[in-house]
Every structure is written in structure tokens, then in C-alpha cells.
Amino acid sequence: MSNLNVDLMNKLGLTTYNSSSSTTATKSSSKLGQDDFLKLMTTQLNNQDPTQPMDNSQFLAQIAQFSAVSGIQDMQSSLKNLADSFVANQTMQAASLVGHQVVAVGSNATLGTSGTLSGAVDLSQNANDLAVGIYDSAGQLMKKMDLGAQGKGMIPFAWDGVMDNGGQAPAGIYQIKAQASIDGTAQAMSTYVASSVDSVMVDASNQQIMLNTSTGETIKMSDIKQIM
After folding, report:
1. Which of 9, 40, 59, 144 has an alpha carbon within 20 to 30 A of 195's alpha carbon?
2. How far apart are CA 131 and CA 23, in angstroms?
3. Which is it for the CA torsion 228, 225, 134, 98, positive or negative?
4. Within 13 Å of residue 60, how many CA atoms lie on the same side as its CB?
């Protein structure tokens, strides 16, 4: 067998034998390209048994298989380029949110020196009773707001900083917990709060855009309910 044929067979990871020994050729780490494939086909035709030539259908089948593999590789490359472009566009859009207030799923909210802390509870179904608790960093309850019976949907709430004991809470970040009574069963509910976007990052594991907020939470772009 010619050196050209041996080299091409090695690129395919096939076993070759020398006439003087039965040493198996080592598998090459290089990939089989289009030029190599054509050379392999030509070599295969030149070295075929004249008494048993390759069937035309087999020859065409090999060409079709190579074309299919080549097409899949081109499609994978195009999809990767499209995905990279999509992530880049999303990153640019997310970067424009830095410094803006967004309303998104979260459990922390900021009480300023003046004004109120506000948010909303996402009720999955009608509730016989809905309560929102405001907790400090130590987990101590500052304020409990009883919102009574509420229908399904987004239920807004606001806190002016006045605690249950009548005192004024200091400015800072507070934790929000909502609980609803549905058919006699107490259930924790998701809350939406307003916060400022401080920075943007891309999760390397899944190329997902994440937003770091002023409340110390990291949220997904898909978690945003409203841009203020």
C-alpha cells in the first residue's frame, strides 16, 4: 500500500498493516478534510481489485455520507456564530440597564432615608388572606402588613418605614416575605421588588445574562417585570 494511502487511512483511524510486519498504525489526531477525502477516494479506486470493482451505488453512498457530515459541521458553525451574536446583543441591551430601576422577582428591597419601600406579591390563585412581612438583616420582623382576601394576580404593597412598635426603621436593605392562605393552607408567595441595576455579567456555564442589583441580589433578564 502506498504511503499516501497509509497516511489517509491513519487519519481515518483505520488499521493498516505492513507487508513485513503486523504493526498497527497509530491513530492520527488530525481531522479528515475535504481534500483528504477526495485523495482517499482516488487512492481507493486506484487500488481496488480489478476483478471486483467498487459498485457505483457504494461510491455514491460514500460521497453522500461525506457531504452530510460536512453539511452538519457547517450548520453547527453557523448556529454557534448565531448564538454568540445573540449573547452579544443581549449583553449590550443589559448594559443599558445599569443605573436604572427594574421591578423583578426578588426578596430584598431598599428603604431610603425618605420615601417608601414598595413591591408586589404574585398570587397564583385567589387567597383568603395575604400577609407581607418586612425583616431586617438579623431576621427580626419589623413590620407585618395584613392585606386581607385578594384575587389572583399581582398585588402591590408599600411600607413607609414605620415599624410595628411605632418607631421609624433606619434606611437600608430589608427582606420581604409573603404568605397567603389558600383553601386553608398557608403558602409562601413570590414577591417582586424594585431595585437599581449596578452591573451586568455573563454566566460562563450557560451564557446567560445576569444583573447585579443594589439589593445584593443577582437576577436573570427573564425575571424583569418592569423597567422604570
Report:
1. 144
2. 79
3. negative
4. 3
Nearest to 131 by CA among 210, 69, 191: 191
State residue 17's pLDDT score: 43
Residues 164-181 pLDDT 10s: 999 999 999 999 999 999
Distance of alpha carbon 63 from alpha carbon 154, whole angstroms: 60
Alpha-carbon gap, residue 58 to 52, rounded angstroms: 13
Grid cell, residue 159, equals: 411600607
Closest to 133 in 3D by CA, of 101, 166, 157, 153: 157
Of the pLDDT bands very low, low, confident and very high (cuts 50, 70, 90), residue 139 is very high
The structural domains of the chain, with segments of one domain joined by +, span 1-47, 103-194
Residue 217 contacts residue 226 (beta carbons within 8 Å): no
Closest residue by Cα to residue 173 from 188, 153, 194: 194
Q: Given its phi and psi angles, is residue 141 left (phi above 0), alpha (psi -120 to 50 degrees) or beta?
A: beta
Return the ∠ at Cα 61 (arms to 66 and 12), rounded to 5°. 45
pLDDT band at 49; cut points 50, 70, 90: low
pTM score above 0.85: no
